[in-house]
Amino acid sequence: MTFDSTYDAILVSLPSPQQLFPGFGVKKISAIDNSNAYISIHKNLIRDLCCNTRQDGLLLTASADKTMKITSISSFNTVQTFQSDFQFWACAWNTDDVNYIYGGLQNGSVLVYDTRQANQAVQVLNNNNYSTPMVSLVYVPVGGPSSASGLLMNTLETNGFWEKKEGAEWFCHNLDMDRRCTGMSFEKRTRHLLASYRASDGVRHTRRVMYNFQCQSVGATDTRMVTCTPIETFYGGSTMKQLTRSRLFPSPAGADKLLVCGGDEASGSAHLWDAGSGRLLQKIQVNANVLDVCPFYSNNNHFLATLSDKDLKIFNWRL
Protein backbone atom coordinates (compact mmCIF):
# COMPACT_ATOMS: atom_id res chain seq x y z
CA MET A 1 0.00 0.00 0.00
CA THR A 2 1.17 3.52 -0.79
CA PHE A 3 -0.24 7.05 -1.19
CA ASP A 4 0.06 9.33 -4.22
CA SER A 5 -0.13 12.99 -3.21
CA THR A 6 -0.55 14.20 -6.80
CA TYR A 7 -3.99 12.62 -7.16
CA ASP A 8 -4.78 12.25 -3.43
CA ALA A 9 -5.17 8.52 -3.91
CA ILE A 10 -4.42 5.42 -1.87
CA LEU A 11 -3.03 2.57 -3.97
CA VAL A 12 -3.55 -1.01 -2.81
CA SER A 13 -2.33 -4.13 -4.63
CA LEU A 14 -4.85 -6.92 -5.18
CA PRO A 15 -5.91 -9.64 -7.64
CA SER A 16 -8.08 -8.73 -10.61
CA PRO A 17 -11.77 -8.51 -9.65
CA GLN A 18 -12.72 -9.86 -13.09
CA GLN A 19 -12.41 -13.63 -13.60
CA LEU A 20 -12.38 -13.14 -17.36
CA PHE A 21 -9.28 -10.95 -17.05
CA PRO A 22 -6.97 -12.64 -14.51
CA GLY A 23 -3.89 -11.01 -13.14
CA PHE A 24 -2.90 -8.49 -10.48
CA GLY A 25 -3.05 -4.75 -10.23
CA VAL A 26 -3.86 -1.91 -7.87
CA LYS A 27 -7.05 -0.30 -6.70
CA LYS A 28 -6.87 3.49 -6.82
CA ILE A 29 -9.02 4.94 -4.04
CA SER A 30 -9.63 8.69 -3.87
CA ALA A 31 -9.04 10.25 -0.45
CA ILE A 32 -11.36 13.09 -1.50
CA ASP A 33 -14.60 11.30 -2.45
CA ASN A 34 -13.83 7.57 -1.95
CA SER A 35 -14.29 6.84 -5.67
CA ASN A 36 -12.17 3.92 -6.87
CA ALA A 37 -10.89 2.23 -9.99
CA TYR A 38 -8.89 -0.91 -10.71
CA ILE A 39 -5.66 -0.70 -12.76
CA SER A 40 -4.45 -3.97 -14.29
CA ILE A 41 -0.63 -4.23 -14.26
CA HIS A 42 0.91 -7.69 -13.71
CA LYS A 43 0.30 -11.37 -14.45
CA ASN A 44 1.32 -12.49 -10.96
CA LEU A 45 1.42 -11.27 -7.36
CA ILE A 46 2.60 -7.69 -6.69
CA ARG A 47 5.08 -7.81 -3.81
CA ASP A 48 5.94 -4.11 -3.50
CA LEU A 49 4.85 -0.71 -4.83
CA CYS A 50 5.85 2.93 -4.35
CA CYS A 51 5.34 6.41 -5.84
CA ASN A 52 8.14 8.87 -6.52
CA THR A 53 8.75 12.41 -5.22
CA ARG A 54 8.35 14.12 -8.61
CA GLN A 55 4.54 14.19 -8.25
CA ASP A 56 3.97 12.98 -11.80
CA GLY A 57 1.47 10.24 -10.96
CA LEU A 58 3.83 7.37 -11.75
CA LEU A 59 3.72 4.13 -9.76
CA LEU A 60 6.55 1.59 -9.50
CA THR A 61 5.58 -2.05 -8.87
CA ALA A 62 7.59 -5.23 -8.29
CA SER A 63 6.02 -8.58 -9.15
CA ALA A 64 6.47 -12.31 -8.90
CA ASP A 65 5.98 -12.44 -12.70
CA LYS A 66 9.67 -11.39 -12.96
CA THR A 67 8.85 -7.86 -14.10
CA MET A 68 9.00 -4.43 -12.55
CA LYS A 69 6.77 -1.78 -14.12
CA ILE A 70 6.16 1.96 -14.10
CA THR A 71 2.47 2.75 -14.55
CA SER A 72 0.61 6.05 -14.95
CA ILE A 73 -2.22 6.15 -12.43
CA SER A 74 -3.93 8.89 -14.48
CA SER A 75 -4.03 7.12 -17.86
CA PHE A 76 -3.80 3.56 -16.39
CA ASN A 77 -1.15 2.77 -19.03
CA THR A 78 2.17 0.99 -18.54
CA VAL A 79 5.01 3.45 -19.17
CA GLN A 80 7.99 1.08 -18.88
CA THR A 81 8.61 -2.60 -18.18
CA PHE A 82 11.80 -4.10 -16.72
CA GLN A 83 12.44 -7.84 -16.84
CA SER A 84 14.62 -10.20 -14.83
CA ASP A 85 15.48 -13.88 -14.64
CA PHE A 86 14.26 -13.86 -11.04
CA GLN A 87 11.12 -12.69 -9.28
CA PHE A 88 11.08 -9.10 -8.05
CA TRP A 89 10.37 -8.88 -4.32
CA ALA A 90 10.98 -5.18 -3.59
CA CYS A 91 11.40 -1.86 -5.36
CA ALA A 92 12.45 1.73 -4.64
CA TRP A 93 12.84 5.12 -6.36
CA ASN A 94 15.98 7.20 -5.98
CA THR A 95 14.48 10.28 -4.29
CA ASP A 96 17.58 12.38 -5.10
CA ASP A 97 17.31 11.54 -8.80
CA VAL A 98 14.03 9.85 -9.77
CA ASN A 99 15.52 8.76 -13.12
CA TYR A 100 16.98 5.82 -11.18
CA ILE A 101 14.96 2.94 -9.79
CA TYR A 102 15.96 -0.23 -7.95
CA GLY A 103 14.57 -3.76 -7.91
CA GLY A 104 15.28 -6.31 -5.17
CA LEU A 105 15.28 -9.89 -6.42
CA GLN A 106 14.42 -13.35 -5.15
CA ASN A 107 18.14 -14.22 -5.05
CA GLY A 108 19.08 -11.22 -2.86
CA SER A 109 20.58 -9.10 -5.66
CA VAL A 110 19.57 -5.54 -6.52
CA LEU A 111 19.12 -4.35 -10.12
CA VAL A 112 19.82 -0.68 -10.87
CA TYR A 113 17.92 0.92 -13.76
CA ASP A 114 18.21 4.29 -15.48
CA THR A 115 14.73 5.01 -16.88
CA ARG A 116 16.21 7.22 -19.60
CA GLN A 117 17.99 4.23 -21.14
CA ALA A 118 16.77 0.94 -22.59
CA ASN A 119 14.96 -1.37 -20.22
CA GLN A 120 18.13 -3.22 -19.23
CA ALA A 121 19.77 -2.92 -15.83
CA VAL A 122 22.76 -0.58 -15.84
CA GLN A 123 24.21 -2.34 -12.80
CA VAL A 124 23.74 -5.42 -10.62
CA LEU A 125 24.55 -5.21 -6.91
CA ASN A 126 25.65 -8.61 -5.61
CA ASN A 127 26.99 -9.75 -2.26
CA ASN A 128 27.64 -13.35 -1.20
CA ASN A 129 26.01 -12.66 2.17
CA TYR A 130 22.67 -11.99 0.48
CA SER A 131 21.16 -14.96 -1.33
CA THR A 132 17.57 -15.14 -0.04
CA PRO A 133 14.56 -13.08 -1.21
CA MET A 134 14.66 -9.31 -0.69
CA VAL A 135 11.96 -8.46 1.85
CA SER A 136 12.35 -4.68 1.76
CA LEU A 137 14.35 -2.05 -0.08
CA VAL A 138 14.49 1.58 1.11
CA TYR A 139 16.37 4.44 -0.53
CA VAL A 140 18.31 6.65 1.91
CA PRO A 141 18.69 10.19 0.51
CA VAL A 142 21.64 12.51 0.98
CA GLY A 143 21.27 14.11 4.41
CA GLY A 144 24.32 16.32 4.84
CA PRO A 145 28.02 16.59 3.98
CA SER A 146 29.04 13.64 6.18
CA SER A 147 26.08 11.39 5.47
CA ALA A 148 25.83 8.70 2.83
CA SER A 149 23.06 7.91 0.38
CA GLY A 150 22.20 4.43 -0.77
CA LEU A 151 19.90 1.48 -0.22
CA LEU A 152 18.83 -0.09 3.05
CA MET A 153 17.88 -3.68 2.37
CA ASN A 154 16.95 -6.81 4.21
CA THR A 155 16.47 -10.37 3.02
CA LEU A 156 14.88 -13.25 4.87
CA GLU A 157 18.27 -13.99 6.45
CA THR A 158 20.21 -10.76 6.92
CA ASN A 159 20.33 -7.01 6.29
CA GLY A 160 22.72 -4.39 4.97
CA PHE A 161 23.30 -1.00 3.39
CA TRP A 162 24.50 -0.42 -0.16
CA GLU A 163 26.34 2.92 -0.04
CA LYS A 164 26.23 4.99 -3.24
CA LYS A 165 29.68 6.39 -3.94
CA GLU A 166 31.07 8.39 -6.86
CA GLY A 167 30.03 7.41 -10.37
CA ALA A 168 28.80 3.84 -10.64
CA GLU A 169 30.58 2.61 -7.51
CA TRP A 170 28.66 1.05 -4.63
CA PHE A 171 29.94 -0.39 -1.35
CA CYS A 172 28.09 -2.90 0.81
CA HIS A 173 28.03 -2.50 4.60
CA ASN A 174 26.79 -5.20 6.96
CA LEU A 175 24.60 -3.62 9.64
CA ASP A 176 25.31 -4.24 13.33
CA MET A 177 21.68 -4.95 14.19
CA ASP A 178 19.52 -8.02 14.78
CA ARG A 179 19.16 -10.10 11.66
CA ARG A 180 16.08 -11.60 10.02
CA CYS A 181 13.86 -8.56 10.33
CA THR A 182 10.61 -8.65 8.37
CA GLY A 183 10.77 -5.07 7.09
CA MET A 184 12.33 -1.62 7.42
CA SER A 185 11.12 1.98 7.55
CA PHE A 186 13.36 5.06 7.37
CA GLU A 187 12.68 8.61 8.62
CA LYS A 188 14.87 10.98 6.62
CA ARG A 189 14.87 14.03 8.96
CA THR A 190 16.19 12.20 12.03
CA ARG A 191 17.80 9.40 9.97
CA HIS A 192 16.25 6.86 12.29
CA LEU A 193 15.59 3.32 11.10
CA LEU A 194 12.73 1.08 12.23
CA ALA A 195 13.11 -2.70 11.89
CA SER A 196 10.35 -5.21 12.58
CA TYR A 197 10.91 -8.68 14.05
CA ARG A 198 8.93 -11.81 14.66
CA ALA A 199 8.92 -13.53 18.05
CA SER A 200 11.88 -15.88 18.58
CA ASP A 201 13.31 -18.27 21.16
CA GLY A 202 15.05 -15.38 22.88
CA VAL A 203 12.19 -12.85 22.63
CA ARG A 204 8.66 -14.23 22.85
CA HIS A 205 6.93 -11.14 21.49
CA THR A 206 6.94 -9.39 18.15
CA ARG A 207 8.89 -6.16 18.29
CA ARG A 208 9.89 -3.05 16.41
CA VAL A 209 13.30 -1.63 17.12
CA MET A 210 14.20 1.98 16.31
CA TYR A 211 17.88 2.54 15.50
CA ASN A 212 19.99 5.63 15.00
CA PHE A 213 21.47 5.17 11.53
CA GLN A 214 24.84 6.91 11.20
CA CYS A 215 27.53 7.14 8.53
CA GLN A 216 30.87 8.47 9.70
CA SER A 217 33.98 9.17 7.65
CA VAL A 218 37.10 7.23 8.59
CA GLY A 219 40.22 9.41 8.57
CA ALA A 220 40.95 11.48 5.47
CA THR A 221 39.67 8.84 3.04
CA ASP A 222 36.23 8.52 1.46
CA THR A 223 35.65 5.33 3.49
CA ARG A 224 32.67 5.47 5.80
CA MET A 225 31.68 3.42 8.82
CA VAL A 226 27.96 2.69 9.10
CA THR A 227 26.47 2.03 12.54
CA CYS A 228 22.97 1.26 13.83
CA THR A 229 22.52 2.06 17.51
CA PRO A 230 19.27 0.83 19.12
CA ILE A 231 17.24 3.64 20.71
CA GLU A 232 13.87 2.16 21.64
CA THR A 233 12.00 -1.15 21.39
CA PHE A 234 8.25 -1.49 20.91
CA TYR A 235 6.69 -4.84 21.85
CA GLY A 236 3.57 -6.44 20.41
CA GLY A 237 1.85 -9.81 20.65
CA SER A 238 3.35 -13.25 20.26
CA THR A 239 2.55 -14.05 16.62
CA MET A 240 3.33 -12.71 13.14
CA LYS A 241 2.47 -15.43 10.64
CA GLN A 242 2.60 -13.12 7.60
CA LEU A 243 5.21 -10.55 6.65
CA THR A 244 3.74 -7.23 7.80
CA ARG A 245 4.95 -3.64 7.45
CA SER A 246 5.35 -0.99 10.11
CA ARG A 247 6.00 2.74 9.68
CA LEU A 248 8.12 5.35 11.43
CA PHE A 249 6.82 8.84 10.65
CA PRO A 250 6.49 12.42 11.99
CA SER A 251 3.52 13.05 14.28
CA PRO A 252 0.69 15.16 12.84
CA ALA A 253 0.87 17.09 16.14
CA GLY A 254 4.42 18.25 15.31
CA ALA A 255 7.25 17.18 13.04
CA ASP A 256 9.68 17.17 15.98
CA LYS A 257 7.95 14.07 17.36
CA LEU A 258 7.97 10.61 15.78
CA LEU A 259 5.35 7.88 15.87
CA VAL A 260 5.60 4.15 15.24
CA CYS A 261 2.63 2.20 13.91
CA GLY A 262 2.26 -1.45 12.99
CA GLY A 263 -0.19 -4.32 13.07
CA ASP A 264 -0.59 -6.67 16.03
CA GLU A 265 -1.88 -10.05 14.88
CA ALA A 266 -2.73 -11.31 18.37
CA SER A 267 -5.19 -8.48 19.10
CA GLY A 268 -6.41 -7.76 15.56
CA SER A 269 -5.39 -4.14 15.86
CA ALA A 270 -2.79 -1.57 14.83
CA HIS A 271 -0.57 -0.36 17.66
CA LEU A 272 0.50 3.28 17.78
CA TRP A 273 3.55 4.23 19.87
CA ASP A 274 5.31 7.44 20.85
CA ALA A 275 8.78 6.82 19.40
CA GLY A 276 10.46 9.13 21.90
CA SER A 277 9.18 7.51 25.07
CA GLY A 278 8.22 4.04 23.82
CA ARG A 279 4.74 4.52 25.29
CA LEU A 280 1.84 2.74 23.64
CA LEU A 281 -0.59 5.54 22.73
CA GLN A 282 -3.45 3.59 21.21
CA LYS A 283 -4.66 0.21 20.02
CA ILE A 284 -6.60 0.93 16.83
CA GLN A 285 -9.08 -1.94 16.64
CA VAL A 286 -9.47 -3.40 13.17
CA ASN A 287 -10.63 -6.95 14.07
CA ALA A 288 -8.30 -8.41 11.44
CA ASN A 289 -4.63 -9.04 10.80
CA VAL A 290 -3.13 -5.66 9.80
CA LEU A 291 -0.63 -6.22 6.97
CA ASP A 292 0.35 -2.61 6.28
CA VAL A 293 -0.24 0.92 7.55
CA CYS A 294 0.08 4.21 5.67
CA PRO A 295 -0.09 7.72 7.19
CA PHE A 296 -1.02 10.45 4.70
CA TYR A 297 -2.11 14.07 4.41
CA SER A 298 -5.00 15.13 2.19
CA ASN A 299 -7.38 18.08 1.95
CA ASN A 300 -5.87 19.75 5.05
CA ASN A 301 -6.38 16.65 7.19
CA HIS A 302 -4.14 13.88 8.52
CA PHE A 303 -5.20 10.24 8.08
CA LEU A 304 -3.97 6.74 8.83
CA ALA A 305 -4.88 3.85 6.52
CA THR A 306 -4.71 0.24 7.71
CA LEU A 307 -4.72 -2.67 5.27
CA SER A 308 -5.76 -6.07 6.58
CA ASP A 309 -6.35 -9.42 4.94
CA LYS A 310 -10.03 -8.41 4.90
CA ASP A 311 -10.30 -4.72 4.01
CA LEU A 312 -8.91 -1.20 3.98
CA LYS A 313 -9.84 1.21 6.78
CA ILE A 314 -9.07 4.91 7.02
CA PHE A 315 -8.87 6.74 10.33
CA ASN A 316 -8.86 10.49 10.91
CA TRP A 317 -6.37 11.99 13.35
CA ARG A 318 -7.81 13.98 16.25
CA LEU A 319 -5.24 16.62 17.13
Written description of the protein model:
This protein is mainly β. It contains no helices and 27 strands. A four-stranded antiparallel sheet has the order 1-2-3-4, with no helix packed on it. The mean pLDDT is 93.
Short précis:
With 319 residues, the chain is mostly beta strands. The protein has no helices and 27 strands. It is 0% helix and 55% strand.
Helix percentage:
under 10%
Distance from N terminus to C terminus (CA atoms, Å) equals 24 Å
Q: So what's the overall shape?
A: globular
What structural category characterises the helix and strand content?
mainly beta
Compute the gyration radius: what is it?
A: 19 Å
- Percentage of residues in strands: over 45%
Mean pLDDT, to the nearest integer, reads 93
Pick out its properties.
mainly beta, four-stranded antiparallel beta sheet, single chain, 0% helix, 319 residues
